Amino acid sequence: MISVHRFRSAAIAISLSVLVVFSSTIVIAQTKLEGIIKGRSGPQIFLQTSDSPKVVVLLTDDTDVAQYEGVLKARKKEMSMAALIPGLPIKVEGSFNAEQQFVAKKVRFKGNDLEQAHAIQAGLHETGVQTQQNSEELAKQNAELAKQNAAIQAAAARFGQLDDYYILDEVTVYFENGKVNVDPKYNSQLIALAQKAKGINGYMVQVKGYASATGSVELNQKLSQDRANNVTTIMIQQGHVPLTNILAPAAMGESQQVEAGNGADTEAANRRVVVRVLQNKGIAGTPAT
């Protein structure tokens, strides 16, 4: 009886050992995966399969990497692991380790799939380079715009503001008593002002004529209009400012008289035309108020 009992115990032990070995074999049994490489990090491949968006495949020194060749894909060509690039569809044989990484024993892929993956990578690289160039160009443009805005703000602070416009520069032309012709000495100043205006985005030129309080109101109104018209003609003909960039010449007559000391100086200071270069605040980047 003792021998039979020992025999049965030994048989049970052997059966359990076989079961454990069999179970272990199932755990480490080789498995096949198929998917598209979405990324690489050293020996790790991030594989997207039909069942999972990310399976970590671990490459080892023993991983066999090859490319199928021939119409029937019956031949293979040994390949470097460097060929395993994002976008490449692959088939992997191996097994999961304790960290749930799929340790690759074999990796196979098609030659035309590799070519397509390379083309995708090249396209992405070219797009990345172009994007970088565009970003750099945009940064340069923004820097230049910021510089221009700073200059506009500085000019506005220096000359002031007028309704919805910044006053960026101005020239004042003075006239003899009762005269409307522009002294030639002002021509160079007016032409220089016109050239400066052309370098400003969305510029406008404002011309306002004035007269002293001497004489009748009607006469002074006409003098201020004629003076403004003559200065405007110089800005158009010699400064080559387009009509679309010139506000209608304004006759201010005796309004807005300025004080310049004694009577004679005050009279002379009021016989004038003020030419201003304006820029709309909205165009300059500041909402108009």
Present the secondary structure layout.
Layout: H1 2-27, E1 31-41, E2 44-49, E3 55-58, E4 64-69, E5 75-78, E6 89-96, E7 102-110, H2 111-159, E8 161-162, E9 165-174, H3 187-198, E10 203-209, H4 217-237, E11 250-251, H5 263-270, E12 272-280, H6 281-284
Parallel strand pairs: 3-7, 4-7, 10-11
Antiparallel strand pairs: 1-2, 1-6, 2-3, 4-5, 6-7, 8-9, 9-12, 10-12
Can you put this structure into words, describing what you see?
- The protein has 289 residues and is α+β, with helices and mostly antiparallel strands.
- It has two domains: 90 residues, Nucleic acid-binding proteins (OB fold (Dihydrolipoamide Acetyltransferase, E2P)); 137 residues, OmpA-like domain (60s Ribosomal Protein L30, Chain: A), CATH 3.30.1330.60.
- 42% of the residues lie in helices and 27% in strands.
- It is built from six helices and twelve strands.
- Strands 1-2-3-7-6 form a five-stranded mixed barrel.
- The chain starts with a helix and ends in a 5-residue tail after the last helix.
- About 4% of the residues have low confidence.
What can be said about this structure in brief?
With 289 residues, the chain is of the alpha+beta class. The chain contains six helices and twelve strands.
| End-to-end separation | 112 Å
Give the radius of gyration: 43 Å
Q: What is the CATH architecture term of the largest domain?
A: 2-Layer Sandwich
Give the total of domains: 2
Helicity range: 40-55%
Give the helix tally: 6
Kindly report the average pLDDT value.
79
How are the strands of the largest sheet arranged? 1-2-3-7-6
Strand content: 25-35%
Instruction: Please give the number of β-strands.
Output: 12
Low-confidence stretches: 18-28
* N-to-C SSE string, H for helix and E for strand: HEEEEEEEHEEHEHEHEH
Structural class call reads alpha+beta
| CATH level 1 name of the largest domain | Alpha Beta
